[in-house]
From TrEMBL:
Transmembrane portions of the chain: 12-39, 71-94, 106-126, 160-180, 201-231, 257-278
CDD domains according to UniProt: TM_PBP2
Keyword Transmembrane assigned: yes
Pfam families according to UniProt: BPD_transp_1
Protein name, as recorded: Spermidine/putrescine transport system permease protein
GO terms (BP aspect): transmembrane transport
Organism per entry: Anaerosporobacter mobilis DSM 15930
Cell membrane as UniProt keyword: yes
All copies of domain ABC transmembrane type-1, residue ranges: 72-278
Amino acid sequence: MTKSKHSLRANTIPAITTVGPITLWLLFLVAIPLVYVLVMSFCSIDEFYNVSYHFTLDNYKRLFDTNYLQIYAQSLFIAFFTTVICILLGYPFAYFIARAVSKRKAILYMLVIVPFWTNSLIRIYGWRSFLGTNGWLNTILMKLNLINTPVEFLYNRGTILLGMVYCLFPFMVIPLYTAIEKLDQNLIEASNDLGARGIYTFSHVILPLTISGVFAGSIMVFIPCLGFFFVSDILGGGNSDVIGNLIERQFQSGNNWPLGAALSIILILMTLLLVRIYQKLGGDMESLGV
């Protein structure tokens, strides 16, 4: 009995030492802030825009305002097409990397990682300088006599899609690359030996076996796209807001933190719902970094 107690204690102390700091980290930096946001979403504000801790459901009722519903629809539109474009561009790119020789594969994979070394906000400002009326693109086009006056490339939905795809493209490529690299080459060779053409092999062998990467990449692109408010602000001029713009505006210029908290809770619930759907479809949570 004494030996079992000592053995249990000997096994428990290392476990607490290992898991304890991580648990405290998650508790103070994730759990408590989320609970605070949830509580604040049921609060109100007084005439001086101070948070008043009186229970109310008005913040959640305001979420069904017509103007907000339009922004929700616009957010889903932008996120959907950003995801589709990332899939169409990212899949062949990831396939090419996964099937490249080892030395070239390392270089190509590094090119995908390199953008993470620079803050995305700085890179988006780079696009703004490039696409502006006095930017490089207009300057080159005018010198080539393709246009007579500068073209306004900024402040439209297409430019926002460009910025979103540019920021989130690596998040699509990485899970796709992981899924494609695990693909058994013998199955592709067997399909070719049986007379299947390239398109048939892709649709019936390659795509079904790598669909988990498509799902994982779609989640990793779609969800952040709803909250990347700075892309809409910088490239769209606030003409095509996403949900993230609503949240940022409530916490900044609107001084309505409870409403911003309610919007944040809705965004979190949407995230959990999408992840749950991904799980139901048989997705691997390790592909999402969970």
